[in-house]
């Protein structure tokens, strides 16, 4: 048997955020060993040495000191793009192999010099990205080679975003020579296109620099502005040796981007016919009944109808403007429940969707989703009955506590726990169903953004904060605006079913107030007045919240 291979000794130059991604890989490999590290910031270099978990790692003051060491066989170049070539050449002259973070160099002349130095010295040079070696690209390459899709004639590649300054604490190097979207993210797309379609023989393109300065959005330097020294919007057409044409768009100047399909008249007409039944229902049961609000200004009597009931002006609104005790009690209870549900119920589907989205197994994910959706289809009669059987005075919980001499826990029928009980019921019933929209939004997030963030050293939490949550922001704001419009409606049927055991003082809300004073008490005009004001307040809240969303740059419910 031959002697075991000696591990390759690695020296790292540059201890920035990207080093974390490489360290996590190095710790898993037994064939390589980190022996030295250097960085302009000695504190960062020491932090990398401590995280390496590879025994003694030398922290050195300069690149020259690192490449001069005998226990460094290869240099891992993680510096900013502008000095990639300088570091690579220094390592090659010292007889060290080099692997660099993308790009190989800031321009073609420097890249040619690096490759020439490696050939002359008989050394190896490598450069990120190596994502083309993953199963997805390799499977696509085999499909192309085997002719499964015929002869490729065209490809498109888009990478558009607002720029890294929103989340990176030190983003200036992205906007200096060697940076920009083409040399930062472009290598992922270009390497895949060349790997799939062959070498590029001709390029046509143009670029621009829409903004001269950028502002850092996070970290200790948030608010600091810096100049942009490279073009940040690039478009191009690549002609491959096999004849295929690739269209490329790389940009740090697109806040939101989505390709829209071309309109198809036949498809749209079919969708319109499907909409007609819904429109009819909406008109019959929502818009036409609005005319009945006229009874808010009448002393309405059902047996003589709207046309013959006497007018009462604004008398029915006295309970609102003069502070009727029962109305104020219902208003306070409604606002308290609204606040509780906005704080606890509204975020629940978001958190659950994030948890479901993190599941790796699609089979388990679908099974969990199906289980979580089921409660939504139960009526409130069934849900309240289930909670009664579980938490009532003679329910399963109290029977268990009594059997173990632990006393009783009064939940059902207890005014002090009533609002908590209502909130728990809503969360149990509707949280799973509420995840549908958020999971749909998450499914549209480009996985390349996660890969790019990971390569730049972002942890799972940072990826969630800077990639996942921004993808949900527009939807969250839209649903929050709509929820505010429904703020004075907090579960009529759910509360009415449990009102008898609690009493009106603790359970009366706006909807049950309208029901109890109108249908039960016969005070139709007052109930209509309260309902009309509730609707007007809801519309005002939607319009106000939508305007605030526009001020923060969001679309909201509609664009003015």
Automatic annotation (TrEMBL):
- Per the record, the domain of life is Bacteria
Q: What is this protein called?
A: Gfo/Idh/MocA family oxidoreductase
């Amino acid at each position: 048997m031959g002697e075991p291979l000696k591990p390759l000794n690695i020296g790292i130059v540059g201890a920035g955020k990207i080093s974390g991604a490489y360290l996590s890989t190095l710790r898993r490999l037994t064939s390589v060993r980190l022996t030295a590290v250097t960085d302009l910031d000695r504190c960062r270099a020491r932090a990398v040495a401590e995280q390496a978990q590879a025994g003694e790692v030398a922290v050195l003051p300069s690149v020259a000191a690192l490449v001069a060491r005998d226990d460094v066989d290869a240099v891992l170049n993680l510096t900013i793009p502008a000095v990639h070539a300088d570091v690579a050449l220094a390592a090659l002259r010292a007889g060290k192999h080099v692997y660099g973070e993308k790009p190989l160099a800031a321009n073609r002349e420097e890249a040619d010099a690096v490759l020439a130095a490696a050939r002359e010295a008989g050394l190896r040079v490598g450069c990120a990205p190596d994502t083309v070696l993953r199963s997805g690209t390799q499977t696509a390459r085999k499909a192309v080679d085997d002719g499964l899709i015929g002869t490729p004639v065209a490809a498109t590649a888009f990478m558009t975003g607002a720029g890294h300054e929103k989340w990176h604490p030190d983003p200036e190097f992205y906007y200096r020579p060697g940076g920009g979207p083409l040399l930062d993210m472009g290598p992922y797309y270009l390497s895949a296109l060349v790997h799939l379609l062959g070498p590029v023989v001709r390029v046509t393109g143009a670029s621009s620099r829409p903004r001269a300065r950028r502002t850092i959005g996070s970290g200790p330097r948030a608010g600091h502005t810096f100049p942009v020294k490279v073009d940040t919007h690039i478009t191009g057409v690549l002609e491959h040796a096999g004849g295929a044409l690739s269209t490329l768009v790389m940009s740090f100047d697109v806040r939101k981007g989505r390709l829209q399909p071309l309109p198809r008249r036949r498809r749209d007409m079919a969708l319109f016919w499907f909409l007609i039944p819904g429109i009819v229902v909406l008109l019959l049961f929502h818009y036409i009944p609005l005319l009945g609000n006229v009874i808010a200004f009448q002393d309405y009597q059902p047996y003589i109808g709207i046309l013959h009931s006497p007018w009462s002006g604004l008398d029915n609104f006295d309970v609102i403007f003069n502070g009727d005790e029962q109305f104020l009690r219902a208003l306070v209870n409604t606002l308290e429940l609204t606040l509780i549900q906005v704080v606890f119920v509204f975020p629940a589907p978001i958190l659950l969707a994030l948890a479901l989205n993190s599941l790796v197994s699609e089979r388990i994910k679908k099974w969990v989703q199906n289980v979580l959706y089921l409660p939504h289809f139960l009526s409130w009669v069934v849900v309240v009955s289930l909670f009664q059987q579980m938490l009532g005075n003679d329910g399963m919980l109290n029977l268990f506590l009594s059997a173990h001499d632990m006393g009783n826990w009064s939940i059902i029928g207890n005014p002090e726990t009533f609002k908590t009980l209502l909130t728990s019921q809503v969360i149990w019933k509707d949280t799973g169903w509420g995840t549908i929209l958020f999971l749909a939004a998450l499914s549209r997030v480009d996985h390349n953004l996660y890969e790019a963030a990971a390569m730049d050293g972002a942890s799972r939490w940072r990826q969630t904060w800077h990639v996942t949550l921004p993808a949900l922001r527009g939807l969250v704001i839209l649903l929050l605006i709509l929820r505010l419009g429904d703020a004075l409606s907090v579960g009529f049927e759910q509360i009415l079913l449990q009102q008898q055991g609690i009493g009106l003082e603790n359970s009366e809300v706006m909807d049950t107030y309208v029901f109890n004073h109108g249908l039960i008490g016969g005070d139709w005009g007052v109930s209509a007045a309260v309902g009309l004001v509730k609707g007007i307040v809801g519309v005002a809240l939607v319009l106000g919240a939508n305007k605030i969303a526009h001020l923060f740059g969001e679309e909201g419910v509609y664009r003015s």
